[in-house]
Structure formats: C-alpha cells, structure tokens
C-alpha cells in the first residue's frame, strides 16, 4: 500500500492554459474524491467517483473543470482556460466500499499545488 | 447548509503546554465528526473520529476530543504538546454521506 499518489506535486501555468492532474488511488479502493483547498480555507468537495461513475459534482466545478476515472482506476482532473482564481491545492482521496467516510475516513494524497500566473 | 467553524486560526504554544482547539458545527441532524492533521509537506491524516457512543474520543498521538451535542462542539485537546505537533488541524463533519465539510483549519506552532 503506497497510499494515494498525485502528480505533479506542483504546477505553474499561465492564465488561459489548460492543465491536467492525475490521481492514483489505493488499488483496492473503488471510491475516489477530489477536493480543492485555497489559502486560509479548509478543503472543499469537488467531485466523487464510485468506480468509473462520477456520482456527484459540486457547484464549485465550473464548466472549465472536468474529471474522469476511466476503468475505475486512476483519475484525472482537467482545468481548461485557467484563471488566477483556480490557484489552489487540489487534493485527491480514496476509500473502499467498506470504508466510507462514516467508517474510517478517507486516505488523502499530498495534493497538486496549482499556481496560475 | 452544514458549516464548520474553527475560531482559532493560529495558535502558538510552548512544549508541554496544554492544547485545546475549538470546533463548532451547524447541522441539526445526526453527524459524524472528525479531526484531521496536516504536518508540513504531508497529506491530511485522520487523528480521531466520533460516530456515536462515548462522547470523549481518543485518537492517535495522545489527542482526544469531546463531543458536546448541546453546544454543537467537538473540541480537540492534548494535555502536553510536543514540538512535533506543529501542524495544521482541521475539524470536519459529515451527515453520513461520503462528503466532508471542513473547517478553515488551525495552524499550531509549538516552540521547543
């Protein structure tokens, strides 16, 4: 068990560019979550996958954001036409069916820090 | 809507001092409560959780938290902090779904 892996750790991009982040969850976990954390705030929920199905998207996830989880394994989060307000830490977490948030909590990754200049 | 308030944004303590971090939530129904810790450069880690039963919950590294339903509070405590406790602490709540609502966090600095 190597934990939840996120790549890259840091990304600096120019406004208007597209960026894509990757999350590799713990292999036996079928549930995957994305959160966003801005400076001085706690993590905010973005979206949730159960296997390959995206079951919920937050209103924070504008049309410029898209997340996928092909084959129910790794997940990608893409931001198109980045804006300075997108600068944040993007966190991925995973859990298994028997380890919902009501049981053991998630396992979080270390996050991808995005800076839009 | 659910919300979580952490009133102490920054706390500075000397080693061996006692710690109490406040957490209040707003939700009228049954809740599950959590404290997470984020050490510098590391990922969020679960410290402790409350679902039901004994309102005094013990977690890892000597931390404990008390659920007071009448006050909608879930304060985190540690009798004697160490330098290694320097971290950011997040309180979180869920009403039983898969989604956390996090507080804004408290940055704790422990002076050696």
Largest sheet report of chain A = 7 strands, mixed
Mean pLDDT of chain B: 92
How many beta-strand segments of chain B?
12
The CA-CA distance between the termini of chain B, in Å, is 41 Å
Helical segment count of chain B: 0
Order of helices and strands of chain A: EEEEEEEEEEE
Q: Approximately how much beta-strand content do the residues of chain A carry?
A: over 45%
Q: Helicity of chain A, in percent?
A: under 10%
Uncertain runs of chain A are none
| Coarse shape of chain A | globular
Alpha-beta content class of chain A = mainly beta
Residue runs with pLDDT of under 50 for 5 or more positions of chain B: none
Helix tally of chain A?
0
Radius of gyration of chain A: 13 Å
Write a structural description:
The complex is a heterodimer of chains A (about 120) and B (about 110). In chain A, strands 2, 4, 5, 6, 9, 10 and 11 form a seven-stranded mixed beta sheet that branches. A four-stranded antiparallel beta sheet of chain A has the order 1-3-8-7, with no helix packed on it. Chain A starts with a strand and ends with a strand. Chain A is mostly beta strands and about 120 residues long. Chain A has strands spanning about 5, 10-15, 20-25, 30-35, 45-50, 55, 65-70, 75-80, 90-95, 105-110, 110-115. Helix content of chain A is about 0%, strand content about 50%. Chain A is built from no helices and eleven strands. Chain B is an all-beta fold and about 110 residues long. Helices cover about 0% and strands about 50% of the residues of chain B. Chain B is built from no helices and twelve strands. Chain B has strands at about 5, 10-15, 20, 25, 30-40, 45-50, 55-60, 65-70, 75-80, 85-95, 100, 105-110. In chain B, the strands form three sheets. In chain B, strands 2, 5, 6, 10, 11 and 12 form a six-stranded mixed beta sheet that branches. Chain B has a four-stranded antiparallel beta sheet with strand order 3-9-8-7, with no helix packed on it. In chain B, strands 1-4 form a two-stranded antiparallel ribbon. In chain B, strand 8 (about 65-70) and strand 9 (about 75-80) form a beta hairpin. The N and C termini of chain B lie far apart (about 40 Å). The mean pLDDT of chain B is about 90. The interface of A and B includes residues 45, 91 and 102 of A.
């Amino acid at each position: 068990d190597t934990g939840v892996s996120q790549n890259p750790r840091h990304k600096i991009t120019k406004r208007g560019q597209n960026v894509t982040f990757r999350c590799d969850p713990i292999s036996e976990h079928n549930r995957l979550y994305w959160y966003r954390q801005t400076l001085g705030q706690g993590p905010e929920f973005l979206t949730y996958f159960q296997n390959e199905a995206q079951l919920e998207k937050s209103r924070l996830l504008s049309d410029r954001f898209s997340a996928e989880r092909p084959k129910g394994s790794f997940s990608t989060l893409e931001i198109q036409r980045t804006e300075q307000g997108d600068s944040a830490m993007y966190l991925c977490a995973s859990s298994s069916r028997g380890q919902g948030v009501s049981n053991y909590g998630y396992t979080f990754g270390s996050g991808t820090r995005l800076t839009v200049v | 809507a659910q919300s979580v308030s952490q009133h102490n944004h920054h706390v500075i303590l000397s080693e061996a001092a006692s710690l109490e971090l406040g957490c209040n939530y707003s939700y009228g129904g049954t809740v599950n409560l959590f404290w997470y810790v984020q050490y510098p450069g590391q990922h969020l880690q679960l410290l402790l959780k409350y679902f039901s039963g004994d309102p005094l919950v013990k977690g890892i590294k000597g931390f404990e938290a008390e659920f007071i339903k009448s006050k909608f509070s879930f304060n985190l405590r540690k009798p004697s902090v160490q330098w290694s406790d320097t971290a950011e602490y997040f309180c979180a709540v869920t009403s039983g779904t898969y989604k956390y609502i996090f507080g804004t966090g408290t940055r704790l600095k422990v002076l050696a």
